[in-house]
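Notes to self after the call with IL:
- keep both proteins in one doc
- input above output, always
- annotate only the second one for now

Protein 1:
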Amino acid sequence: MSFPPELLALGLLFIFGTIIFLIIRISRRQKVDQDNQLHQLGFRALESPPLELERRVEELCRPGGDQEVTLRQVYHRRELDQDLYLFDAADIHGENSELGSEIFGLISSQLALPRFSLVTLPDFDRESLIGGLMDKLLDKAMSYAEKHLQLQRIEFPNRPELDDKVVLFGQDPAAVREMLDRVGLSAFRTDDLPVQIDGRGDFLTADFSTGKSLNQPGQDLASRYQTFIQIARRFME
């Protein structure tokens, strides 16, 4: 039994429209669920990112001025003398425009950080598929840090065990090593998914979206928030 071409075209349009409708509906539901979680955590949505947040993100992401960074989906929570944020960051003109999604940020007078970028490494078999993806992810992170962020790789020759735990970059290696000796680098060891931690001055961020490249299930938003708070406290001790 054959169908007229017009009927087939209408059928395809109906299927395509149904798929688009379901995608939009799921996306809206996810947005509602996220808003509810953030509301329970004390965050509120902002219509536009505050200038103090934009300036600090730009200082982290575009030291050479070769990127135009925009922030989206910005949420804020005020806690004593600290400002907590959740946001997405993108490079408007970059080939891979997304710089990070659902990034947690903290502006606090209790922070005084040298410029650094740290990626934690979960346990993985380098011969496995996940291991191959992780190696590619690390190569990309190292290239980005050195080329765009103007940071240099920092190694710990006296502590080779740390090479399997973190990848570290900074502008002033001596200052970064001193900071992490005080904080305790082993405290950022993770067994499941990587997290990228960046800091400069009174600003600290943690991006858990790095693990999405590995197609592994991550923590929910509330758990990631608690992990970020634990990380931030280490740097304020």
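Protein 2 (the one to annotate):
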Amino acid sequence: MDRARVAPRPLPFHLLEEITDGFSEERKLGAGAYGSVYKGQHKNGEIIAIKKLHSMPKLNNQQFQKEYLNLATLQHQNIVRLVGYCHETRGEYIEFNGRTIFAENQHMALCFEYMCNGSLDNCLQDESSGHDWKTRYKIIKGICKGLKYLHEELNPPIYHLDLKPANILLDEQMNPKIADFGLSKFFGDERTRVSASAIGTIGYLPPEYINCSLVSNKLDVFSLGVIIIKTMTGHLGYSQSAEMPSEEFIDLVQEKWKNRIQGPSVDDIDSCAELVKTCIKIALNCVDADRHKRPNIGDIIRELDETEIMTQFSQAVTIDPGSTSLDEQDESGFLEVHPHQLRFLFFELNKAICPLLLSNSTEDNVAFRILSENHMEELSELSGVVPPRSTQTYWLVMKKQPPANTSEFSVTLESCIAHEDIADGDDQFLPEVLELTQGNKVHKVTLMAVTSERTRSGVTKVIYRVDAAVPVDHHLTQIDVHPTEPWILASHRRGGVSIWNYETQERVMTLKNLAPTDMMRSVKFIARKRWFMAGDFHGWIHVHSFAMNDEVTKFKGHDGAVISLVVHPSDPLVVSSSVDRHIKLWNWKAGWRCVRKLKAHLNNVEKVLFNPWDSNCLASVGNDNMLKIWKISSPLPVTILDCDEHQLTVDYFHPGGDRQYIVTGSVSGKARVYMQYTWIFSSSPQ
């Protein structure tokens, strides 16, 4: 969905100088033919990319205004957004022919949203390394969507004319955004600044332009084809594609990706491989020497969409070969199933569980049961009734491990429209269900199930036991474990902090009087700085160097006890939460300035935690019964879930594949599990 239109704001040149440290080299992100790009950071923490344009005699006010209007009207999730601009003329003393003279100097800049992952050009590698297939496909599909917007959704259309990996920028989620479109057209008189060609970049220009200077929308399509090939095969892939027949190249690329794609089942790998084949075929059609044979961007999107639908369906369900009725083989069935592949993780020696999400979009009750022809001894029976227009989460339980040579097996989900009397019973798939539903078809779907080998041998046991209490204080309030050293950091009720080596059973450091009149409520290592921090009962945050055994700083962070501290995995950011209901983000490179303040919960914010697979997201829980998911760039939560009771802790869990879960723990001792895809609650098995 396109974003709401927000007009770019005028920014004075002195402000741009200030937030880029005078356009310093340390702030430079890159340079091009028309200007250099700098990273600017406002006092409120907002980061923007500032393209300071070179002075050009033929760049007059009318031309700049026209270009600004072209950029300002573009609103699409795959187009870099213009957020500000500067166009000033100042009288300044400058050096000219060995003399200092007073002259008017024109300053022009275009300010864009900042893309933290840089350009696609910087991360292109061959197919055997770098980003996985799902990330690369997201990039390919996003570029196509952005180009479709420019070519088919604008009137008049815009042709980019210089599409290349360096002009595809990537945000924190690796979403691609097209940048620098239209500049070659705008700065057409400054041709010597780009290349010998009037527009574009050698290697991405089609033969009709090189030979005859012909420009059309098919020029961009040619460039798109080169980008897709390089995204899938690396920088050398395009030249390789020209050295062999198309079908041979398609088979080569598909086979290489099929060998690399990690899938828990053959269906998963085959589905991704089909998308690989479609993408590389599209790319080769895009770089056809005859521009009339190249597809339109709308045709490309449609082909990708159709392939996605077919692969998702084939991956989701396999119809039981015993079904004979056309109604029985209707691809939609009665229930939508998630996940399509069941993964059993053995947390205990002889027991494993797997959540199963069933959605009923019909107006009738749907009865179901799970069968496994060869593994009913290991798999607990599961049956029930899903009410109309509802989603239910069930737990499949394996009572014991299957034979050692069985890592993958199939289960069958049977479902049918149920008589209303069934729903009023004991929620079981009754033996007489077929009699009560005479005339209704039974839909059978085969799901693949796998067991996790990596956790089968794991046995929980005590490895080290450390008495981490100092003599004057036998009450620990919180601990943290160093990621690389064998150390435990502990906070104490009477204001002390200690570090213990759990291998040698010796105390590394003790600070009894870090806050002598206060209780320490939270502690956290900042390993890469060789610091630790501690939050006390009255809202002070203490930062200490364990390498130098010296105080780094301390500051008043909250109006109440600091309950939780967490460190960003890569950026110089610390997140704190408190009984004052707030979450705050602190930047230690900016003198521990608070860069974001979130009024997070109605009462105590008990725990905050960064998502280990998306460090720009964090989760929080509080005693207002709520679980909230946040983007650190936004003051508002992206998801709010009611957990029904006071929550004390939260953690992320990644069992493998592309699934993620959030687990919360409550004061009553109950654990709640939420699926990433829909953040739907899955209760623990009783």
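Annotation: The longest helix spans residues 266-286. Residues 557-686 form a domain with the Methylamine Dehydrogenase; Chain H fold (CATH 2.130.10.10).
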